[in-house]
Design goal:
Blueprint: H1 2-10, H2 14-52, E1 57-61, E2 74-75, H3 78-85, E3 90-104, E4 109-117, H4 123-126, E5 132-135, E6 145-148, H5 149-155, E7 162-168, E8 174-185, H6 190-193, E9 196-200, H7 201-207, E10 213-214, E11 216-221, H8 227-237, E12 242-246, H9 247-250, H10 252-290, H11 292-300, H12 305-340, E13 343-344, H13 347-355, E14 361-362, H14 368-385, H15 387-394, H16 398-403
Parallel strand pairs: 4-9, 6-8
Antiparallel strand pairs: 1-11, 1-12, 2-10, 3-4, 3-7, 3-11, 5-8, 6-9, 7-8, 13-14
Domain ABC3 transporter permease C-terminal: 267-397
Protein name: FtsX-like permease family protein
Membrane topology: Multi-pass membrane protein
Amino acid sequence: MLLKLAWRNIWKNRKRTLITAASIVFAVLLATVMSSVTEGVLYKLQDNVVSFYSGAIQVHKNGYWDDQSLDNSMLINDTLINQLNDHESIHGVIKRLESFALSASEEHTRGCMVVGIEPEAEPIVTKLDNKVSEGEYLTADDKQVLVAEGLAEYLGLGVGDTLVIIGQGYHGINAADKYPIKGLLHFASPDLNKRMVYLPIKLAQQLYGAPDRVTALVLAIDDVNEADKLETELSKIISDKYEIMGWKELMPELNQMLQNERGENVVFLMVLYILIAFGIFGTVLMMTLERQYEFGVLVAIGMRRFKLSIQIILENIFISLLGAAIGTLISIPVVVYFHLYPIEVGGSLQKIYEEWGFEPIYYFSVEPFIFYKQTLIVLIIALVISVYPLLKILELDPVTAMRT
């Protein structure tokens, strides 16, 4: 009975109800679209940065990350590889041998990161083969190297020239050799572009006197957001001789930046929700003042204040849910459309995006929580605002109310 009365009452003043519902529809639509584009852009940014080099999750010998030397490298056994490959979320285990060294030409020297890779497997995570700007990509049996463009330019080297690498190998042995440059790599990240050298992992193991040893296993997974869950699951089945690290630990500065961006979005959404709250409160305030006489009569003829309060709360919830539901229904096709056909960025902003290796596109996320979250928040706002008419009814003097 109360539900029926509440539904009928909100349509006694159609104009007021429709105006309030329309304001909620607009706010929910805007909040949903903003949340969708923010989550979509940040996810793509996160995916792009993670795929530059580190991957979403890595496995090292325990203690390697705190002391990144070849002495903390590890021998790979079939048990570990099988445990990783057997997990349904992992579709590739990529071996790397990494170490810092001095790169040199006849006239210049510069510190660099030397990375031994499996040429066939590495593109699964980093798409390294697509970053070759000049020359050719590596094969497993090559005795040549790939050099980042920025480093090659500083050293004055090009494809076919010889790069000298000088460093310290496993257990302190001398690591020095010279290699022809097979190709140049273009990295969007300025830091990577100035210091990366790649060679086949067997050649790297030979250079550093570390046969069959690796410093990291990079795990290829489909969704970087699953890294935390996968890290927890693997830590329960993998020996404690190994450390499992997700991208948040590998790149804490990226994680902090994403948190800051999401924090800014929360502030913007808070402003929208405050506007929604004022819209709902305005309706509740007018409704409460206009119906003082009605409330006084109902209390005077014996209607319990509690039931009357419930009825008013239901009216408020109906209006809020109506606006939130319509706003969500309108936002779904809008978000899905832009998810399928993202907005391309043009002009100077496009150049900035491309310089930093990000696709100049605004992606939209279609995660379910983006849609139902708005309805839930509006419902909570409506319940909180319902305290006002509730207090007015509890304090109501029927005689005074009927005189207004």
